[in-house]
C-alpha cells in the first residue's frame, strides 16, 4: 500500500480544466518529480493532495484510504510562495506550527533544536523572520514543513532562489528524509534536480500528463542524439559525415555533435581515431531538459 | 480542540506582546483616569479660600431691609438645594455656599475689602425710582455664575414679596415663584401607578452606564474587528496561510483567531473596568460622585450584565464577518476599503443608539432591537433606559444567536474559499464560482 496514490484525478475551474486525468503513485522512500510549465496544473494537483480542494473525478488515496483530517499530522508542505510570520520569534512560530501538526511541546522543542542544528542556524532561534536573509528564511520555511517528520512531504519548488551551498544542504536533507522512508512529491522546473533526486516523474502539459514513468526508461526511450568528443588536435570535416547534423567546437576543445542516428556516432569515432588520439568519446543520453523542451514545447522558459 | 487552544493561545500571546497594544491600552487607561478625575480636579482648583464658600458683602444705599431679605432667602434656598439630592434636579455644579458679611457698608469700603482679598464680592442695591424695586448688581472679581443664579431667584422672591405688599401669604408667594414642571408619562406607566416597577430602570447612573457601554461597544468592536481582519489578511499576504490551512481546519483556524482576539479585547476592557471600578469605590471619589448626586447604589447590575452579554454576542456576530472579509483580501493595503461596509454597520448601530438615547421607547429602537446588527446597542438602551419585557430580551438574544450561527456558517465558507484565492479582491460572482469549484 503506497503512501500516496492518485487515480485519474480531474479538476475543473469555471470552464477550464486545471488537471485532466492524472494518475501517479509515490512509494515510501521515494522522491516523485512533478514537472510542468507554469500553469500546467502542479499547484492544483498539490492542493488536491493536501486536501484543500477536492477532485471532480478520480480519487486520492493515502495509505489506501481517502482523505481524512487525521492525515494532517502526517503531511508536510513547503509551498512555492513560502513565508512565515514576519514579526514573530522563530522558535515561537515553528513550535506553534509543530503544535498544529499535532506535536507535543517537548517533542517539538527537541525536533526544532535538531533541525536548527542541522541547518547551522542555532543563532536564529530567538530572531524574527524579517531579520533573516532570504536564504535563511527559506530554510526556516523548510523546517516548518518537516519539523513534525511527515510521512508524506510535498515540496513545491523547494530549491528556487537558494545559493548553491544551501541547495546542496537542502538536497542532502531531502535525501536523508527519503532514506528514512518519507514519500516525497517534488515539483520543480529545474530538470537537473529531478534527474539527480527522482526515480519517477510525471510531466504535465496544459493540465494533461504527457510523459510519465521511470526516469532511466524515459531517457532510454528517447534517441541518443549528442556525441561528446575530446581530441588534442582538431578533427576537420566532421560535419561532412553521414548522419551528422551540426558540429560545435567549444573553447575547451570539446566537440558537441548533433547526430540524427546512432550509427553516425561510430563513423565519428572512426574519423577521429584516424586523425590521431581520442581523449574522450561519449554518446550522451538526452538530458531531461531536452526531453522537456521536446515534449512541452520550446516556447516555454 | 487541542489545536483550537493552540491557535487561541498563539493569537492572544502575539497580540498582547506587541508594543502598539501595550501602549494604546496604557494610554487609554491614563486618559480614562484623567477624565474620571477632571470633576475632582475642578472642584479642587475652583474652591474659594479653601472653605468653598463665597464671601459676600452688601452695599445697600437705603435698601437695608430688602438686602436683608435677599440674603435670608438665598441662605434658605441654598439649604434646600443641598438637602434635595433628588435624581430629577439635574444641576451639574456643586451648590454655591455663600458666606454673608452681615453689616452693610459703603461701596468704596467694600471695593477695598475685595482688593485686600477679604471679600469675594458684594451685592449692590441701587435705587431706580420711588416705588420701584432697586437694581441689584453682583460686584465680583471671580466668575460667580452659580451665585448669580442663586441670588437672582432670591431677589425675584423678595421683589414679589415687596410688590405684593403683604397681601399674599407665604405659601402663595412660594407658589407664585416656583416654576411649573411638566412630567412626561406614557399611559402604560400610568396604568401601573406611575411607579418604576414596569421594567423601567431609568436612573441617571444607568444612563451614564448605557452611554459608556455603547461607546465601549463601538470602539472595542471596531478595534477588535479590524484586528481579526488584518490578522487574517497578513497571514495571507505573508503566505504562512498556505502552511496553516494544511495543518488546521479552516473552522478551527477562524474561530481560534476570533476567540483569541476576543480575549485580547476583554483584557483591554478589563484594564479599563478595573480603573473605573477602583475609582467608584475609592472614598474620595464617592464624594465627587455625591457632588453630582450620583450614587453607585443606583446602578442596576442587570444592565451591566446584560450589556456585557450583548457585547459578547455582538462581537461574535461582527467578528465572523470581519474574518470573512479579511480572508478574501490578499494585501493589507486593500483591507480598509473591504471592511468599510462593516464599519458603516457598526457606525449605524452606534448612532441609532446615541440619537435615541433620550427616547428609549421609540419605534425605531423597538424595531432595531430585533435587528441583529443593531441589537447590541439598541436592546441595551431599552434594557437600561426604556421599558422592555423579559421575553423581548429573550427574542432579541435568540435572533442574535441564530444570526451568529448563520453568519458564522457563511463566513467559514467564504473563509475556506478566500484563503486559497490570491491576487485582486474577488467579486461575489468569482467567489461563488470558486466556492462551487472547490466544492465548499
Describe the structure.
The complex is a heterodimer of chains A (301) and B (440). Chain A has helices at residues 42-49, 90-100, 105-118, 134-146, 164-179, 191-197, 215-221, 263-275, 288-296; strands at residues 4-13, 16-26, 30-36, 57-62, 75-78, 152-156, 183-188, 200-205, 208-214, 226-230, 244-249, 254-259, 280-284. By secondary structure, chain A is α/β, with parallel strands linked by helices. Chain A has two domains: 4-220, P-loop containing nucleotide triphosphate hydrolases (Rossmann fold, 3-Layer(aba) Sandwich); 223-284, YebC, transcriptional regulation domain (Alpha-Beta Plaits), CATH 3.30.70.980. In chain A, a hairpin with a 2-residue loop joins strand 1 (4-13) and strand 2. In chain A, helix 2 crosses helix 3. By secondary structure, chain B is mainly alpha-helical. Chain B has two domains: 2-37 and 201-438, no CATH class; 52-178, D-Maltodextrin-Binding Protein, domain 2. Helices cover 67% and strands 5% of the residues of chain B. Chain B has helices at 2-17, 19-45, 64-83, 107-115, 145-164, 170-177, 187-191, 204-237, 240-247, 250-281, 283-291, 301-328, 335-355, 363-368, 375-384, 390-418, 428-438, and strands at residues 53-59, 97-100, 121-126, 135-140. A four-stranded mixed beta sheet of chain B has the order 2-1-3-4, with helices on both faces. In chain B, helix 3 packs across helix 5 (145-164), helix 10 runs antiparallel to helix 12 and helix 12 packs parallel to helix 16. The relative contact order of chain B is 0.10. Classes of the chains: A alpha/beta (301), B mainly alpha (440). The A-B interface holds A 12-14, 47, 50-54, 69, 72, 75, 77, 79, 81-88, 92-93, 96-97, 99-102, 144-145 and B 2-3, 6-7, 10, 13-14, 18, 235, 238-240, 242-249, 420, 433-434, 437-439.
